[in-house]
Write a structure and sequence with these properties.
Order of helices and strands: HHHH
Number of domains: 1
Oligomer: single chain
Low-confidence stretches: none
Strand content: under 5%
Mean pLDDT: 88
CATH topology: Transcription Termination Factor Rho, Rna-binding Domain, Chain A, Domain 1
Largest sheet: none
Radius of gyration: 14 Å
C-alpha cells in the first residue's frame, strides 16, 4: 500500500492552510455567509476555527468542500 493519494485534492494540505486561504479569499463575513457556523461568525480566528473544525466532522467537511470548489482547477482531460 502506498501513501500517494493522486485523486485526493486535499492531499498534503493542512486544515490550517485551508482555513487561512479561505479567510484570505472570502474574509470571515464571507465564510459565515457560505457556511453557517459560529466559529466564523462570533469573534472568528484561525485558532478557534481549527479547534472547532478538528472536533466537528460535518463542519470540517463543509469547509473542505468549499476549499475544493473555490481553489481546485479543472483537469483539461476531464474530471477534477
Amino acid at each position: 500500500m502506498t501513501d500517494s493519494q493522486p485523486n485526493n485534492p486535499l492531499h498534503g494540505i493542512t486544515l490550517a492552510t485551508i482555513v487561512e486561504e479561505l479567510e484570505a479569499h472570502y474574509g470571515w463575513d464571507g465564510l459565515a455567509e457560505r457556511i453557517d457556523i459560529n466559529c466564523f461568525k462570533s469573534n472568528p480566528s484561525v485558532k478557534s476555527s481549527l479547534k472547532f473544525l478538528r472536533k466537528t466532522p460535518w463542519a470540517r467537511s463543509k469547509v473542505e468542500d468549499l476549499y475544493i470548489a473555490t481553489f481546485s482547477k479543472p483537469n483539461p482531460w476531464g474530471g477534477r
